[in-house]
User: Fold these one by one.
Assistant:
Number 1:
Amino acid sequence: LTNDDELAERARFVGQSRGGEMVEHFGRVHTVNGFAHRMTQSTAAICLAQLEIIQPQVEKRDRMIRLLSALLDEIPGVSALPIPPETEVYSCWMAGFTIDLEQFRCDAEEFGAQVAAAGILGASQARYYLLPAALPYLTEAAERQRFPYSQPPSSRTYRYDATCCPNAHELLERFIRWSTFCDKYEPHHCEQAAAIVRRVADEYRL
């Protein structure tokens, strides 16, 4: 308990918001080493209830994402995230696809915004998935060689930015996802989502 508003807000920022701040055209960055202290006393009860229905939920997600992926792959210039052939059950929590930037007169950020505006809630590029670029507090610690980045115990210097993961960086420049995909999807929802992506692709196609 505190009557210090500044202290209370700092505690919320670090303990609830995980030290995350939103940056335009990028997404969430973590400026301090925050914590996810957002669990409530109802978490255990919710998890137990979920266990009762998890098998049909997972089976439904697997069927729907495979259907949606097949429909997205039919759109020129659009590729669904590949499902490894050895994966028997694909229980994803979001749907996503990449675009061939050479085939469109927009970048992935604009493409995603148009998909969201057309009806797929939450569709966006999400550059913040590139964790080295989304964790500036690690970059600062490494640059200042704060423990454990000091030498010793570290055997070398560290750097955290997009150059650490060039393949991931390149992928995220073409990647669009939405986390509203769920087990409530039916085949007609997959068809609607693919139709929306197709309309945007046709509108922006070179």
Number 2:
Amino acid sequence: MEEYEKNMIPHIKMVLNSCQELLNKSYSLMDEEQIDRIENILSFRRETLHDYTLEALDEKG
């Protein structure tokens, strides 16, 4: 291994550790209850849009 590569190893490890820390923090920021609420809202909106589309199609023909 060249000297340059040997000198890069600590920097690479530092970057990888920083990435892992960021990933861990991002998981801790997730609010499962909020995600569930958003999912319910989106599901309701999709159903409403689907029903509205069916009604519009029935009116046309």
Number 3:
Amino acid sequence: MTVLLAPREPAESTAFFRFQVQKSPDPRDVYQRGLAFLQSDYFQQPETFSGRVTAVLPAGSPLAAALIADGVCALEFDQFRQFYRLPCGVHDLADGDTARAATIWHNRLFNPALPDDIHVLSFQPDWAAAEARPGPPAIPP
């Protein structure tokens, strides 16, 4: 499952993503413009992100149903020699939620055929219970 960092105020990026997707019928052009935007300074201001992540799952997805029913999960990320485990609260974002729209239009940069009838899940990490292996280096006294 691919997760996205959710911006605190997604209106500007959502408008850009929507415009790019609707502007061009060429998926490659949309992809390249979206990627250029994301590679610029989009991720360089950590304070502009909410601390939660979102993900898209198909309508009728058993995984989405289970996550919504449980209301909690642990997201695990493992790459190279770094591992993270984030306990999270989970909920399904409703139509009209700005984070839902931001997630859908962000994903349409890479999949313009993404339907409207999907689940957009929000994961709110419990940062105090998060784990990292190896952990951060000790700060010298």
Number 4:
Amino acid sequence: MQAKCYTNKTMGRPDIQAFAGALDMHRAKKGVFITTSGFSKDALEYVGLIEKRIVLVDGKQLTELMLTHNLGVSTKQVFEVKALDSDYFIED
């Protein structure tokens, strides 16, 4: 697994190739590459061409996963949602 915290740098094919090489050194067949930014088109295409299974998680997916699993987030405000009680309007 590798994680990068960048705001303005898109991860490119060379970054993924280097990660795939690191997986080879550890005889791993699978890996996860996480970035707070995004991946270039070449990087996404490269992952589809190689035998290794590399899962790419970009900033948007990471944010969604964090919100879904309540990880690294805090509740700032809770809203109360009201609905009309239809039984209230029924005359006996």
